[in-house]
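Quiz preparation item.
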């Protein structure tokens, strides 16, 4: 029995030695609110622009969007982000109901 326990512990130690630990360093993180996002792409990158709509009255002929952040990703990171966002929206809708978007 003791030998079996030792083998299990050895296997756990070996597994722990090969696992990578992910540490989130938020020391330089900032938070920004955005209610507008625009996305464009080239073969090598996907660019996302974030900002806030500064026009609050309906029927205006011109809208002003204050751009605050630009995030540039390679296509692989963009696809992973797309999958993560799709999953989080599914979870949200399962909990709180379907999000219906206005047709513009």
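Solution:
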């Amino acid at each position: 029995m003791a030998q079996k326990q030792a083998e299990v512990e050895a296997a756990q130690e070996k597994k722990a030695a090969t696992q990578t630990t992910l540490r989130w360093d938020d020391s330089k993180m900032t938070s920004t609110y955005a209610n507008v996002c625009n996305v464009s792409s080239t073969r090598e990158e996907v660019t996302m622009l974030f900002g806030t709509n500064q026009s609050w009255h309906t029927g205006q002929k011109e809208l002003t969007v204050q751009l605050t952040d630009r995030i540039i990703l390679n296509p692989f990171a963009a696809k992973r982000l797309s999958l993560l966002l799709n999953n989080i929206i599914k979870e949200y809708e399962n909990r709180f109901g379907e999000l219906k978007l206005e047709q513009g």
